[in-house]
Design a protein that fits this description.
469 residues; alpha/beta; Amidase signature (AS) enzymes; 17 helices; 15% strand
Length: 469
Amino acid sequence: MNDEELCFTPATELLRMIRSKAVSPVEIVRASIARAEALDPHLNAICTPTFDTALEQARAAEAAVMRSERLGLLHGIPTTLKDVSLTRGVRTMGGSNLYRDRIPTFDHVHVERLRDAGAIVIGKTTVPELGWKGNGDSPVTGITHNPWRHGMNAGGSSAGAAVCAAAGIAPLHQGSDGAGSVRMPAAFCGVFGLKPSYGRIPYWPMPNNGAISHVGPLTRTVADGALMLQAMAGPDDRDMASLESPPDDFIGGIDQGIAGLKVAYSPDLGYLRVDAEVATRVEAAARAFEELGCKVDLVNPGWGDPIEMEHVLFTGGYAGMLGHLLDEWADRLDPGLVALTRHGMKYTAADYCRAQGERLQYYDKVHAFFQRYDLLLTPSLSVAAFDAARLIPDHWEQHPWDWLRWAGFSYPFNLTWLPAATCPCGFTAAGLPVGIQIVAGRFQDLRVLQAARAFESVRPWAQVRPVFP
């Protein structure tokens, strides 16, 4: 197996090879680093490499295998961490001049868990400033490029994570999702991304928008996503919203199939605009669930458009985080982030509380829907990747900061804390990936994984790779 094939081998297979001593963690990590060094000048996906430390850890991982020690769930597997995740002793900029030189003294809890499971971190991945938008650029790191076409948007905010996944730079990548920030870049880059149920993966320290933000995996295969989720999930009382019960067996349960499930397919949630090429690819993908033995109904869920409450809660979070800093820092921040923050500062405490009440009413509608259906299918996004220098596609209505409308399928499930995944389901005529979103009721993370795995079995995608000059 040459280095490129090794880099595109799923983590589930690499683990078997490591345990059987067919391949060394050192070989795997060296191949991942070599690929990162070769491709990142073209992609700009890794903002803080940790290659030397990773090689040291790989040598220690190899020694543990040779001594027949007890090995962790992710022992020896190269991994990246999103640059809003705090990492002990490793720079964490968040794509912002505010934190350009920040070196945390502790890890986020999900980082702790990945390390404890034996994952080897090869670097921090790029983000838009403080994760505010669905585009992969920031004042600190510049533009992160889509691996399928240079100069096109890689999505945000887990931009570098999705790019590395698609490009074969390590198999496991950590993201976070406050309004679609795992699913958007995964869809734009043609990989699997999962936002689990809120609280499934503890989030501590919790960000200011923590009531809508989730941690999740980005991988090339569903099984790798399940593996990574297994390593990060489980209760931790440092996060007051952490789910108390132990997680399901995500790894052992994903192949149970979905025959007999009642599935709803909504091409627009009843109100969203969708580009024609995206709509056509997703409609064809939805038909695969009939092949898998499901009953599929075309539906308008009837929930209404939650964009106004999303505006209050999303921009209000940034107002609380940055409003007091604008006088000093506005000229060094992303102008769109400044405009969004100023918008959030217009809302009152009463406005914010009213939006929270509307959110609870919205959840009641969504909850009732998932009493009737086991799964919901939608497009992951309304558009395919567009010019990376633009906040909004040029054929859509422009706005100084409101990119949320082309990502309207994402944030409803942050507001309601439901598990949602995106799977690749084809390409546009220009060769850009399209994604289908799979959603289930709250706590039904395993069901989402089972559905994604079943879809992957009849519409495989991981064998298709971007080509680099």
